């Protein structure tokens, strides 16, 4: 590094004063016992301090100047961050587009089909809509997250196994299946991902397919503008005929339909609260059932089962309690309805083994649905009579029985026609056949079903016609022409041939029915495959901007070599940005002339973002071209010297980046990504072991080997903490939670958490003590602030676990066996009277991490101390005395020891990192806290290793300098022997060229980035929506808070990336003494600039590869929404978060404060 490498002239002048690397790096005279950790200054014993007013003023001016490098660096990183934001926005607009929504509405007066072809002679009522009304009233009961296996009976369980808490808890449905099979229909209700409540409600009311980007709006629903059966019902019967109670997501979607007077909406996002919403629904449901004259449509949405799954998992005593409560309410509903009322009981989605949802695993998409009427619903023999069994889908055996399976959107046309409403215009679902085989008139049942199916098919065909008019060159338009459009024409042609014969054969009617059903199935399958319109020009624009930014970063790292953003570069970037804004409006007409762009949804905002990013990048390249000679070193034009990589470390870093990018070339690679990350880090450990074995100094070599082995061991330990994806199957065994069916921590993880809380501060103290840096803020923070924060966080985790366990045990057992502390512990669960205790504890811990610790650190961030020691002065021959001394007083001199001097930058920065560490672990599950504690130790091992290898490199270089000086001296003495002199000089040159095994900064930067991925997977996360730990939103917040709760979820999810980004400067700062040159300057920011840009470039290249494979090659892949799209969202989020942390926390706050304080105290200038 620059400040460790003096010039050759300086080395020649001080050849005799270079006994060791530490001596060159120490300031003035170093102590013999701790040369790298303390510095000494010898002064005459005087009562006054060494600094006067003039010195203080100079120090203040110097401190003011030191803000410039950090601000310049922050400006450069901010520009990169903004370009990344623009690139990701453009790509996301093209890749995660919402589907095109048509504003058209279906009308009763227009059935969208040719009535002259086939007219049912029985459907001649003048006041009918599309189909005669079959039921006057309907009751829709939504039990959120009601998984299919929760509904059906299970009588085939082994006698020696305990029955899961979620099975056989709805006996009312089992009783209906046994006693009233013709009045009860049970379906496996298959949802389309993403399986979040808002998207499911949209699908259940409009019959449309959601897009994955809609999942982000699950927490802030806006009014639904599409045609839906709820709005059609309100238009037909009146607003006052709809009564709603439950999840407030409904009122957000239908504010004009669900009137305030007839709605009882409750907040829905407090997943800790299992009872408040359900109790409110129960309170409103009772009076409504007693007086059905006040409503024609009753909707009740219960949330307790879903919240129980999120909080405790499905296999928990709480789940049994909630399902039994739902069973009681269903009994009341079924007993109170009249014969003309249709009852629909359904789940909007399921839940996985941990009680979460959002993805597309079987457990998440397979909900249950029960349809019941007191009058006969179906004659099962008709399905076989009309040979319809082949067109229907059935489940695998569940509980010993087989059930029908239908799509959730199939409920939309079914319910619409049964209630005498038109099918919503955008619907893609198919009518459920069983409900249109009228048991009252079996003779005409096939005609009823055929008319309903034909109406359904005509509505879907009309939707596609309108869509093609709006998007004539879209993929859906192509699919209509090439795949399924002719199927509808074929069915209509068959119907024309069949004519209006009321005596048409049943076989012919069944054939027509199958043709329409085939059309509906094929069209839905094609739409699911296409999913949404990909805007390729926008995707290309986003990927191109991101790739160009990577090229700029590479040029800045290798050629430009400036500190941050110099004024000349700043002017070029600002000029390019302003030019992009000015030309954006004029670029749109030009771009629209390109054929591939004409079908794009490119808007003015998109063009402005693209032009700003493009012209600012062009400004960067122009600045580089105009100032190449002044900013580039001569050897930089040589490609191999430009990067200056030692062969092995440079190759290894490039290999890691290349393979990391190739992970996105296969969905299987993404599924098993954590295994690749572990392989990368263990490979680094093996290569690092080889580096360490070649370190010259024996003590340093032993220490380096121990650190490498510790690094590899910790990697292996972290790999044992896993949460499995569905696709991993038997290749993964989950260990993060207590079991695969629970989302609560295990007891052993709590025991380990207590041990981790005791060990972590101790290890941090040992680490700082090794560099004599356990002074100042370190004493207060490590021994008190950090320790108290960890203890409080541990108490919160234990009380949270014990409270939930006590509550669940109490709910499932009798009071005779209750523990004396169970009332207190149970009261700490959601809604408990003692909840404030654990909430207060964790809030105090957050206060230490975010307020008390940072305030104390900001006041005095240094970990240095000064010790003054009076030592006797050696007198030559015992005769000479110091001047001014008395004849009787012993001769002494004062020595000032600066403890922690050699790690002045690193120790202070490390303290700030531990404060962020405390904040992040407070948002984690217990095992996640342990993982990050091990992760902090692993980061410490990495920076210690880099320091040892850097010292070894310096030592070998120093030996080469000494050998060259000796050779030149010998050559001057032995000038008579030219051959000997030439040989000596040549050997000295070779010695100078020799380099010890070392690492270029790119390799530790890449390793640190990969460690962020490792910590992410080890803290219980995966690149799936269902693995998001939503319960972290309620840590320290008893009820959902729309400001703090999202922050907690973000920190919980992206905390590992935050820690690794913030730890990055330690690669340069750790054990880097503030040794100034003759001008009083310490050179740090060139390496810090390169370090930050390297991490940004690595993450950007990974995202570019993700964009290329996900949006380019695999956007029609079967797993695009299940595997590729969630991984893209994770990488984009990680990149932006790391960029933001580097700009704000790392550079503007922590690094700036550390540099300024060290500069002020030691009167140096850091550039």
Please describe the topology of this protein.
Layout: H1 8-13, H2 21-25, E1 38-43, H3 53-65, H4 67-95, E2 137-143, H5 148-151, H6 171-179, E3 184-190, H7 197-206, H8 229-237, E4 242-247, H9 249-253, E5 263-266, H10 276-290, E6 297-302, H11 304-312, H12 317-336, E7 341-346, H13 362-365, E8 366-372, H14 381-385, E9 404-407, H15 411-418, H16 445-470, H17 475-498, H18 506-530, H19 536-560, H20 567-592, H21 595-598, H22 604-626, H23 628-631, H24 639-643, H25 647-662, H26 667-671, H27 673-693, H28 698-719, H29 747-769, H30 777-812, H31 822-826, H32 835-859, E10 865-872, E11 892-899, H33 904-921, H34 926-973, H35 978-993, H36 1002-1018, H37 1044-1063, H38 1066-1069, E12 1081-1082, H39 1085-1113, H40 1120-1162, E13 1165-1166
Helix pairs in contact: 3-40, 4-19, 4-22, 4-39, 4-40, 10-12, 11-12, 12-30, 16-17, 16-18, 17-18, 19-22, 19-39, 20-22, 25-27, 25-36, 25-39, 27-28, 27-36, 28-34, 29-30, 29-34, 30-32, 30-33, 32-33, 33-34, 33-37, 33-40, 34-35, 34-36, 36-37, 36-39, 37-40, 39-40
